[in-house]
Write the structure tokens for this entry.
Amino acid sequence: MSIEVDLDERELGLILDGLFAIIAHPTTTREDWHDASELSDFLLALGAGHFDGWGEAEKSFVQQGMSAREEIDLTSPPTLRLVESEKTDW
């Protein structure tokens, strides 16, 4: 799922305050703590502009990874490729 939200600094601060309250609350489960922590870290980075222009950088990063994997596949011994491609589903 993907959503687009436009927040001003005050609204972002309110959301972060809510996430920090979830993180600090003694009855918060480990899973909820982890989710709230990850989301607050992401929102802080987003608010600081760390993802500005990420679209092109992301495409380049993915393409570099695919190229590197293809290169490894071409240079690895055939037996290694065979083992990698024939994983048994137990």
Q: What stands out?
A: Helices lie at 9-24, 30-47, 54-75, 78-85.
